[in-house]
Design a protein that fits this description.
270 residues; alpha/beta; Rossmann fold; five-stranded parallel β-sheet; 5 strands; 50% helix; globular
């Protein structure tokens, strides 16, 4: 028997193995889409890790919480394995350096909030409590595309390239912070500054939506979901200024995750 003939069974076996592996990956992705067994990776910043919920038993350094939407979504889905790598303070560069590796060919669900730290949104809001921040908010709003556009494309493209074929990739947006009411929860922030902060949130929403759509991933805006539940509303899903722990300020509280973000994710992944 020739060497060529002898190698044919081995090559056939390798081909069969490859096809079986591809079929398994496709089946895993399909199961995730149906709400069945899935491998779920949660990427992103403090809005995904759970800062603002007051409990960080999963990871104190990154402030990952059992009250954060990724953990709650995983608990509500049958046979879903969660890899929770979102971290407080993360930028797009941090995500690409230390989080993206969690997404593999067997990942069937990915969620992410990212971009807020790239533009220094939290720092801007804190600045408003001690000085006039109107010009800084305006300047940040007008430079959103040049600052964030290419960075978002890099993140979304990498997630899509690494995840399983047919994976549900859900990009979540940021809510407006303020309700327009006067209250102690916005100490030092004028009504005009609150309006400009909301305008920045709207503009950020539009930039993220445009790039997510262009990159072929699903975008879920948080603007509508959090309407009526901003800081100073009668039923706030966002923390106001917390002088005892400023890091908790202007982040979703437990209701913001369970009633705000969880339904947005489940509307896509089941």
């Amino acid at each position: 028997m020739s060497a060529i003939a002898a190698s044919r069974p081995a090559r056939l076996a390798a081909l069969v193995f490859l096809l079986a592996a591809l079929a398994a990956v496709a089946a895993l992705a399909a199961q995730g889409a149906r709400g069945g067994p899935a491998r779920y990776v949660a990427l992103g910043d403090s809005f995904s890790s759970g800062v603002g919920t007051g409990s960080y038993t999963l990871d104190g350094a990154c402030k990952r919480s059992v009250y954060a939407y990724p953990y709650l979504v995983a608990q509500k889905r049958k046979s879903t394995t969660l890899t929770f790598v979102a971290c407080s303070g993360a930028t797009t560069a941090d995500l690409m350096a230390s989080q993206i590796q969690a997404v593999t060919g067997t990942t069937s669900i990915v969620t992410v909030t990212i971009g807020g730290n790239d533009i220094g949104f939290a720092d801007l809001i804190y600045q408003c409590t001690v000085a006039d921040c109107s010009s800084a908010l305006d300047s940040t709003r007008t430079s959103l595309e040049s600052t964030l556009g290419a960075r978002l494309d890099t993140v979304y493209g990498a997630i899509k390239a690494r995840a399983a074929a047919g994976a549900k990739i859900v990009v979540l947006g940021y809510p407006q912070m303020f309700s327009g009411a006067s209250c102690f929860g916005t100490l030092g922030i004028s009504s005009a500054e609150q309006a400009k902060a909301n305008q920045l949130a709207d503009a950020l929403d539009q930039v993220i939506a445009a790039h997510a759509t262009a990159d072929g991933v699903t975008y879920q805006s948080a603007i509508g979901a959090f309407t009526g539940h901003a800081v100073c509303s009668s039923s706030p899903w966002l923390n106001g200024l917390n002088l005892a722990n400023t890091g908790e300020s202007y982040h979703p509280n437990r209701s913001g995750h369970s009633s705000g973000y969880v339904p947005l994710v489940r509307a896509v992944v089941g």
